[in-house]
Specification:
The complex is a heterodimer. Chain A has nine helices and eleven strands. Chain A is α/β, with parallel strands linked by helices. In chain A, the strands form two sheets. Chain A has a six-stranded mixed beta sheet, with helices on one face. Chain A has a five-stranded mixed beta sheet with strand order 4-3-2-10-11. In chain A, helix 3 packs across helix 5 and helix 7 runs antiparallel to helix 8. The termini of chain A are far apart. By secondary structure, chain B is of the alpha/beta class. Chain B has one domain: Aldolase class I (TIM Barrel), CATH 3.20.20. In chain B, the strands form two sheets. Chain B has a ten-stranded mixed beta sheet. In chain B, strands 1-11 form a two-stranded antiparallel sheet. In chain B, helix 1 links the parallel strand 2 and strand 3. Chain B is globular and about 50 Å long. The chains are: A alpha/beta, B alpha/beta. At the A-B interface, helix 4, helix 6 and helix 9 of A face helix 1 and strand 12 of B.
Chain lengths: 265, 322
């Protein structure tokens, strides 16, 4: 199969209903004259008014990979499949899921059900596999401190790709190995990266031949407007605090020791 | 691509054993294939421990030499094999891992390859050892997790299980680890009624905060009713056994044996729990062990069937608290 060939692409991670950040990231990506824009799924969750994300994706021709949230919402499952076991995390995850499900139109839910599990393309001379969690499992967390290089190498060999891009964790990082292999966690647009900054992140990948360049792009957007919208929708104040401070206040259980220690809570 | 890993709640009607009548036997034991070797465990101090805990499912003690310490070379051989097998995480258990005199060197080797978790009773972590662990953690891109077992929120509650003096030493070690920037995972076996859990959690948080650990990560484990625990409390009921029927609607990937193996100084076991059972041995070498299925022949398998991969740091069905 011949893959579509690009030289520069923008890749967006979990949107989590943050339509203001998504619009800002798309504006930025267009200024950078990317050939294509890919979103790695999890359109809903956490943020307000999930239906506001969809027209932005449609009108800008963004390709979307299915995330676990999209899978759950489109199939009407009971939860988001994030796999929390901590009661407090589960409480907030449930609140967020029920709100998102209730406020996503049937038409948008059906569209999410059509997203592919992965998108493959050519970037320069490199093959790229874009997925939500990992190539083998939609809800697998690939954190920087718990993902061995040899494990990534196995994934890339088994799934026959030079480069893997994914999201799901919400924190951006990259790893290189071999002559040209790479893994890129593109970060998330939905909420800050637990670093005390209010910007959110997306990634621009560019390749000339087998020479890959990865840029993590901080996105400044009107986070105070998003916080107001979240409060208007009566979403938990803990979520609003994350948007306003850049520190995660929930879903902490899944963080490995190194990433947890780098945060505030 | 595999879809999302299924999430199985403790209240999922699909795992109600009541629907399976009769008394099952081990002859009916289902098999679980290894889908990927995500976790490689090491019985790094064998069954040798400085404590005599009366709930230990493999009855480790200073006198239990059924399994002996692993050398740095033995661990290194398995680590080298693990690279080809794509292992994602390394776990070190015992006995008490810090009784192994090569422990820092072993951890250094493992941390060069991937994330590491050590399960410890916390009684052998003086400041110089904590400093050594800090240096190793700083020198690796991967997480070094310390899981410290404390089985009660008071001297009386803990030491009734783990022995006199264990509480004070473990709690002090948690304070030293926290001061060194670690966020240890405190594991505790549930020896109380469910209705008491909220109060126990509050007491744990207060206890840990009193030694400077205010971002406590807690993991409550169910009792494994084998080894010393069978005498301390009770063994399994005759019907508490996994059968083929019970696996029909059950996602086997929730079980540790579908994604892990345990290396010892003499053979490779299916998981850290079944060391005393011949059915747990799945190969003389790691290469043999990854092609052999797990056989859920022992009653301890029932606890995992109910709770999921209880030995993992984070696993569906376990009770973790932040």
């Amino acid at each position: 199969m011949t893959l579509t060939r690009y030289s520069r692409v923008a890749v967006f991670g979990g949107v989590y209903s943050n339509h203001l950040a998504l619009a800002a990231a798309i504006r930025d990506a267009k200024l950078r004259e990317v050939d294509a824009m890919v979103c790695l799924g999890d359109l809903g969750a956490f943020g307000p008014n999930p239906d506001r994300v969809f027209p932005i994706l449609h009108s800008n021709d963004v390709s979307v990979v299915k995330g676990n949230y999209d899978d759950s919402i489109s199939r009407g499952l009971d939860d988001c499949q994030c796999g929390y076991t901590e009661p407090r995390d589960n409480y907030y995850a449930r609140l967020s899921y029920q709100y998102t499900f209730k406020n996503t139109s049937a038409k948008n839910r059906a569209w999410m059900g059509t997203f592919p599990d992965e998108i493959r393309f050519q970037l320069g001379d490199l093959t790229v596999l874009a997925c939500h969690g990992s190539p083998r499992q939609m809800n697998e967390f690939l954190w920087e401190s718990t993902t061995p290089t040899h494990f990534l190498d196995m994934l890339s060999r088994e799934h026959k790709t030079d480069v893997i891009v994914s999201t799901h964790t919400g924190i951006h990082w990259e790893r290189r190995w071999g002559d040209f292999n790479a893994y890129v966690n593109v970060g998330a647009l939905g909420r800050p990266a637990n670093d005390g900054r209010t910007e959110v992140w997306y990634s621009v990948l560019e390749a000339e031949g087998q020479d890959l360049a990865v840029e993590f792009v901080p996105v400044t957007y009107d986070h105070e407007a998003l916080a107001r919208e979240m409060r208007d929708e009566e979403l938990p104040e803990e979520f609003v605090e994350t948007i306003l401070t850049g520190w995660w206040t929930t879903c902490l259980e899944i963080l490995p020791g190194k990433e947890r220690a780098a945060g505030k809570f | 691509m595999r879809k999302a890993l299924p999430i199985l709640g403790r209240d999922d009607p699909g795992i109600d054993p009541a629907v399976h009548g009769g008394v099952p036997s081990s002859r009916d034991a289902p098999e679980v294939a290894l889908r990927a070797l995500d976790q490689l465990w090491f019985q790094v101090s064998g069954t040798v421990c400085n404590l005599h805990c009366n709930h230990c499912f493999i009855a480790c003690s200073p006198e239990n030499h059924s399994f002996w310490f692993m050398t740095r070379e033995e661990v290194g051989t398995a680590l080298a094999e693990s690279v080809q097998l794509g292992v994602k995480e390394y776990y070190f258990t015992g006995g008490e891992p810090f009784m192994n005199r090569d422990m820092l060197g072993i951890l250094e080797d493992a941390l060069a390859l991937g994330p590491v978790t050590v399960l410890t009773n916390g009684t052998l972590l003086p400041q110089r050892m904590v400093d050594g662990l800090r240096r190793l953690a700083n020198g690796s891109r991967y997480s070094l997790e310390l899981r410290v077992s404390i089985d009660g929120v008071t001297h009386a509650m803990n030491d009734a299980i783990r022995g006199v003096g264990a509480f004070e030493r473990a709690v002090a070690a948690v304070g030293r680890l926290a001061a060194a920037g670690f966020l240890p995972i405190i594991t505790t076996m549930q020896s109380w009624e469910d209705r008491e859990t909220d109060q126990i959690l509050r007491d744990f948080k207060a206890l840990l905060a009193s030694v400077g650990y205010d971002r406590a990560r807690l993991k409550i484990l169910p009792p494994l009713r084998i080894g010393a625990e069978a005498d301390r409390d009770r063994g399994y009921d005759v019907a508490e056994r996994v059968t083929n029927d019970m696996m029909e609607a059950y996602p086997a990937e929730l079980l540790l044996c579908s994604s892990a193996r345990l290396v010892t100084n003499s053979g490779v076991w299916v998981c850290p729990i079944l060391l005393d059972y011949p059915s747990g041995l799945v190969g003389a070498t790691l290469a043999e062990a990854v092609s052999a299925p797990a056989r859920l022949a022992e009653q301890a398998c029932y606890t995992c069937w109910v709770n999921g991969a209880i030995c993992s740091n984070v696993a569906v069905g376990t009770k973790n608290f932040t």
